[in-house]
TrEMBL record:
Compartments reported by the entry: Membrane; Plastid, Chloroplast outer membrane
GO molecular function per UniProt: GTP binding; hydrolase activity; metal ion binding
Lineage: Eukaryota, Amoebozoa, Evosea, Archamoebae, Mastigamoebida
Cofactor: Mg(2+)
Name this protein carries in UniProt: AIG1 family protein
SUPFAM superfamilies the UniProt entry points to: P-loop containing nucleoside triphosphate hydrolases
Pfam family, one: AIG1
Predominant localisation class: membrane
Length: 339
């Protein structure tokens, strides 16, 4: 016979353990009216008779009175147990009390923690809701009205919330209404029928790959490690610059119950020293030519020589012009006489 394993998840005091006993038809999980958690570790057990193929895994409650550190230990131990003993796990049973009317922030956070713990494709098809403490003596008309409201209201709220986080999903979560701790002598056949429907649903599911189950923090939904380098000048001379480069890290934390992230302090994880030598300076020599006026006597002498030269040149040009004119006129007279 194939095994069918169910994982009970819910808040402290909502009746996970009593539901597990009711499913298995035997008392194996501790139950108490005390508001403090009676389950301090994840453990499982097989049922008897026609439930011998059913294995129920009971877990410590969310929002446990023992604090966050204990809650972290419980969640980590749960994941270890599932990886070791959870082969054949088919259904995740979210346990809520019948008197819970609102889709509270605590329930929303619980849903997100469950989803993050099981990052598996098609995970929501393995999730159902069992409403405990749905007393068998409630009038049928009252039950039917309350059941209808919860089925429509909670399915819509859960799908809206899931789609805000994961995208587009179209699932109607199976819901079962159970009185797992009926009074002696009361007819509780309705609850028995609900459990049979729950088991028929679970047996048809394919097993969850428990190797993909991950440990998750119960306070922070995600933590991102940020890094940066910080350069500090140690010394500076004419020849070199010495700096220290510190590699810093801090955590950017996103809580389940807050929209804005928080940050841890920057911490130095490594340091290196860097020396930068300045380039050598090269001196270039440039020859400078400076013009200075000559002394006044030399300047006057130069001017006199320049004037004499120009005068001589002018006289030469005049004489040359006269000679050219004489030759030209003489040639014209000869030509005239010859005619």
């Amino acid at each position: 016979m194939k095994q069918t394993k169910l994982l009970m998840m819910g808040q402290t005091g909502h009746g996970k353990s009593s539901l597990g006993n009711f499913i298995l038809k035997k008392n194996v999980f501790s139950v108490s009216a005390n508001p403090d958690s009676q389950t301090n570790e994840t453990k499982g057990c097989y049922g008897i008779s026609d439930r011998s193929d059913i294995f129920v895994i009971d877990t410590p409650g969310f929002n446990d009175s023992k604090g966050q550190e204990s809650q972290r230990e419980y969640m980590n131990q749960m994941v270890d147990y599932i990886k070791k003993e959870g082969e054949g796990l088919k259904g995740i049973v979210v346990v809520l009390p019948f008197h819970e009317d609102k889709f509270s922030e605590v329930i929303q956070i619980m849903i997100r923690i469950i989803a993050n713990t099981f990052p598996i494709s098609g995970f929501w098809k393995h999730v159902c809701v069992v409403w405990t403490k749905c007393m068998c003596f409630y009038p049928q008309a009252v039950l039917e009205e309350s059941i209808h409201i919860k089925q429509s209201y909670y399915n819509a709220k859960m799908m809206d919330y899931i789609n805000q986080k994961t995208g587009s999903e179209h699932i109607t979560f199976p819901m079962f209404f159970v009185d797992s701790n009926p009074c002696t002598g009361q007819d509780n056949s309705r609850s028995e029928n609900e459990i049979e429907s729950l088991l028929n649903w679970a047996r048809k599911l394919s097993p969850i790959d428990v190797n993909k189950v991950e440990k998750r923090d119960i306070v922070y939904e995600s933590v991102i490690l940020e890094e940066e380098d910080q350069e500090i000048v140690i010394s500076k001379t004419e020849k070199e610059l010495t700096t220290q480069i510190n590699h810093l890290v801090r955590e950017k934390r996103f809580r389940y119950d807050e929209d804005e992230p928080s940050y841890s302090n920057w911490e130095t994880v490594s340091s290196t020293t860097k020396v930068k030598e300045f380039p050598k300076q090269v001196t270039h020599y440039v020859t400078e030519y400076i013009y200075r006026d000559p002394p006044k006597e030399e300047k006057n002498k130069e001017n006199k020589e320049f004037e004499d030269t120009m005068n001589g040149l002018g006289a030469a040009i005049f004489i040359g012009g006269c000679i050219v004119k004489y030759i030209t006129d003489n040639n014209r007279r000869k030509k005239k006489w010859s005619n």
